[in-house]
Amino acid sequence: MEIDEIKQLLELLKDTDITELQIERDGSKLKIKRERFMSSFEIAPPVKSAASAAAKEEARKAEETQRLVTITSPIVGIFHRSPAPEAPPFVEFGNTVKKGQVLCIIEAMKLMNEIESDVDGVISKVLVENGQPVEYGEPLFLIEPT
Amino acid sequence: MKLFKKILIANRGEISVRIIRACQEMGIKTVAVYSEIDKDALHVRLADEAICIGPASSSQSYLNIPAIISAAEITDAEAIHPGYGFLAENPHFAEACMTSGITFIGPSPENIRLGGDKAKARQIMKRKGIPVVPGSDGPVQDEEAAIKIIKKIGVPVILKASAGGGGRGMRIVSEEKDIEQAYHMAQREALAAFGNGDLYVEKYIPEMRHIEVQILADNKGTVIHLGERDCSIQRRHQKLLEESPYIFSNPRFRKRIGELAIKVARAMKYRNAGTVEFIVDNAGNIYFMEINTRIQVEHPVTEMITGIDLIKEQIMIAAGELLSYRQQDIKFSGHSIECRVNAEDPERFVPCPGRITTFIPPGGPGIRVDTAAYSGWVVPAHYDSLIAKVIAYGKNREEAIARMRRALKEFIIEGIKTTIPVYLKIFDNPDFLSGNFTTHFLENNNKTVK
């Protein structure tokens, strides 16, 4: 490995979050380790934020490993699984859905917003509970596209 | 005292941190709202709850009224503080809060509407006998009307957008022959920036100081003033530095300008915190310019010399509390200066967003730093470039300046460019130090300051 290459690698590393990098090539091994100044925040992130960050992470992993599509909330509001309180839910686990089909309602400022599927597929997981407040970008459903 | 249990802060950056701090001191729970790109922002970390309201774009997040009201509903927030900028002076937002049963922490929608219609505000104050800069009585119909006014009051004049603000939509006309072109350009700009091409004409006062007065008004109509701030150091009509008191102020001047500000507030039945802006010319004449119906960026300098927490006062007034101070209870002590540190190139003032690799704010006696930045934080490109406000306080102007100079030199911000070098030059400038400056300070001192 040439000095220039190593310099380039170090330059690239600088602007990332990577703290440790190991490269093996042509019989030579290079290990770069960086002490990052971790701002030790005693303040815990807000509960809602932590929970939805976890949900987003779960959805992201599911997307990667199982090629599932995540339907996220485009607005802030309350998640309703059914068109009316006593009515059956729009969709359940295992249901086949078509692109454009209504999956749920999100209530915001007393208005009911219908959330539609982006893809044809099968409901793999329902990620939120009925009546749960949801924020923008909150993962709602995992769909296995057909 | 029954205040709110929970307040949602409809803003970001340093002002949202400021509001969260006041709430925490008062035992009020806080809800932060944030766009996706702000998920690691300081205000999100400090609040009790945080709701993501949209993608990075302001129009889909911090300006998104349904998203913000909905966030207040799902968290059971009883009140919303709009901060400054964004929706703070949007009357529809104030009304939407009211309709949803949420208290808007600020003035009434009518106050906001009038504050946003600068030509009309001028007209009303003129009728109430408040001195205004000579000019048109409301917006001008067309360029013939503008020419008529110019013939009456004489050049130079300044054309201003009635729906304008932030120093935009203004054009100075030094010669009568230039009026037609200036009129059309100003109108086009106003239409593009504010959706409203109405212009009004004012006599342009070249050697002027921008002196503004902080007021507080409760729901019973009691109004008090908390002194004046000198905001004459500006670049392209944007404030760079603010100080209180005005260097040439004295008890008589303060009484005069303070009472004028109170008269303005009463004329419009103003509620909550606001700032009345005046122009003061060479001869010491005071002219009403406009009213800002919000808490301002520079509110800390008033807090430092009066000892009054303006955000707490806003919250209490909004909760229905009457003012606990009478005018004679307000005491002014010492001198305070604020510098706005922006993530901008100090030569060209172009925004420079990016990752702050090291952030070590100054400290020590008489130094206050209001910021939402921290080491490792990435300054987003989507919003304004204000990184931190450094506020210095001293027993007199000399001490405040010495402390500010020291603090700016101590302030370490690496990874991005900031405007700190501009301020260091201002604090070495003899005209600034002697108080011999007007709103043209930066232009006149181009070589030494820029």
Please give a structural write-up.
The complex is a heterodimer of chains A (146) and B (450). Helices cover 22% and strands 34% of the residues of chain A. Chain A contains two helices and ten strands, in the order αββαββββββββ. The radius of gyration of chain A is 22 Å and the shape is elongated. Residues 37-42 of chain A have low confidence and may be disordered. Chain B starts with 5 loop residues before the first strand and ends with a helix. Classes of the chains: A alpha+beta (146), B alpha+beta (450). The interface between A and B is medium-sized, with 24 and 29 residues.
Task: List descriptors.
heterodimer, A: 146 residues, alpha+beta, OB fold (Dihydrolipoamide Acetyltransferase, E2P), 2 domains, four-stranded antiparallel β-sheet, elongated, B: 450 residues, Rossmann fold, Dna Ligase, domain 1, D-amino Acid Aminotransferase, Chain A, domain 1, five-stranded parallel β-sheet, 16 helices, globular
Indicate the topology.
The complex is a heterodimer of chains A (146) and B (450).
Chain A: H1 3-14, E1 20-25, E2 28-33, H2 47-66, E3 69-72, E4 77-80, E5 96-97, E6 102-108, E7 111-116, E8 121-126, E9 133-134, E10 139-145
Antiparallel strand pairs in A: 1-2, 3-10, 4-6, 4-9, 5-8, 6-7, 8-10
Chain B: E1 6-9, H1 13-25, E2 29-35, H2 42-46, E3 49-54, H3 65-75, E4 79-81, H4 91-99, E5 103-104, H5 109-116, H6 118-127, H7 143-153, E6 157-161, E7 170-173, H8 179-194, E8 199-203, E9 208-217, E10 223-230, E11 234-235, E12 238-239, E13 241-244, H9 251-267, E14 272-281, E15 286-292, H10 299-306, H11 310-318, E16 335-342, E17 354-355, E18 358-360, E19 367-371, E20 378-379, E21 386-394, H12 397-410, E22 412-414, H13 420-426, H14 430-434, H15 441-444, H16 446-449
Parallel strand pairs in B: 1-2, 1-4, 2-3, 4-5
Antiparallel strand pairs in B: 6-7, 6-8, 9-10, 9-14, 11-12, 13-16, 14-15, 16-21, 17-20, 18-22, 19-21
Adjacency order of strands in the biggest sheet of chain A: 3-10-8-5
Oligomer: heterodimer
- Rough shape of chain A? elongated
Under the CATH scheme, the architecture of the largest domain in chain B is 2-Layer Sandwich
Number of beta-strand segments of chain A: 10
